[in-house]
Amino acid sequence: MYGNDFPGADEGSATGLLDQVEAAEADLRAAAVRGLAASGSPGADSDLQEYFDAVIGADQKIEPRDWMPDSYRKTLIRQIAQHAHSEIIGMQPEGNWISRAPSLKRKAILLAKVQDEAGHGLYLYAAAETLGVTRDELVDLLFEGRQKYSSIFNYPTLTWADVGAIGWLVDGAAIVNQVPLCRCSYGPYARAMIRVCKEESFHQRQGYEILHTLSHGTPAQKAMAQDAIDRWWYPSLAMFGPPDADSTHSAQSMAWKIKRFSNDELRQRFVDMCVQQAEILGLGLPDPELRWNEQRQAHDFTQPDYTELMRVISGDGPCNRQRMDHRRRAHAEGAWVREAAAAYAAKQAARAEVAA
Ligand SMILES: [Fe+2]
Ligand SMILES: [Fe+2]
């Protein structure tokens, strides 16, 4: 994950996450040319469900032109939209520090990172649109509070070290969540996730590098880095969602191969990865119960406060209102840009028609 910048930082994850993304990409290409040898093409309507099941069973991709059960479509729209909203709202906590980055270099890196998140939102809205909704509809659902975004972005960024902690922990948790989505059964989502994950790995590295610099700086800088980790650790663990026992959508999503691992499995993977990386940083994780369990070959750790997670999801986090107000305002202020772009596209289309 970290290339050669920080030797040893990869050891927490058995196979490098980026290697997994590369492998998923290769499989995606192979699946595209392989075709579904077992079942051929669907014929009568009654065959549609059977064909869909066969495609899923054979680890092939469902594409926008294919028939799919309504509930599969709805689940994907909900999940991809929530993901897209998270990318866009997620620009705010770090955007807060662009004007106060400690150097020109840091500012340029952070600008690029925040801009990437806008791009992720764009890929994901586009992937959702292949399922028959428009971006406008999805944005409205967000504004009406009928669709959510990740609760992590409702926490404030109090110091520069928070930019490091977000990159390391929040983008890090996002990658652990998203690498398996590169193998999701819906083609446009899987393809979008491959590109997103490659960029997220840069985000995680830049955050880690910020923390590494701070932790090897003055005692005050090191303390600032530790304080940021202390505040972001449990909200990052909560990013994996409620424990498996309380997770409402999981079983069906696993059967459809949208989801490949359970919330608890992914959370465990993330904890195991972070322990080693924290050691290299020379910083601690704020959990006195954190220790290696020889029998499980994994770390025992304290679960995040799921009551708090539910409270933040339902709108009562430290920054929920601020985030939504800002998004509404930005959307309204950007109306002229959308109108101008639409007018330009219409003019180009009219010209092309005359020329044809
Ligand atoms: Fe992102
Ligand atoms: Fe990111």
TrEMBL record:
Matching Pfam families, A to Z?
Answer: PaaA_PaaC
Q: Which GO terms describe its cellular component?
A: cytosol
Domain of life of the organism encoding this protein: Bacteria
What keywords would UniProt list here? Oxidoreductase
Gene Ontology terms describing biological process = phenylacetate catabolic process
Q: Does the keyword Oxidoreductase apply?
A: yes
List the EC numbers from the record. 1.14.13.149
> Which InterPro entries does the entry link to?
Aromatic_CoA_ox/epox, Ferritin-like, Ferritin-like_SF, PaaA, PaaA_PaaC
Which Gene3D superfamilies does the entry mention?
Answer: 1.20.1260.10
Q: Which GO terms describe its molecular function?
A: phenylacetyl-CoA 1,2-epoxidase activity
PANTHER family given for it? 1,2-PHENYLACETYL-COA EPOXIDASE, SUBUNIT A, PHENYLACETIC ACID DEGRADATION PROTEIN PAA
Concerning NCBIfam families, the annotation shows: PA_CoA_Oxy1 (TIGR02156)
What name does UniProt use for this protein?
Ring-1,2-phenylacetyl-CoA epoxidase subunit PaaA
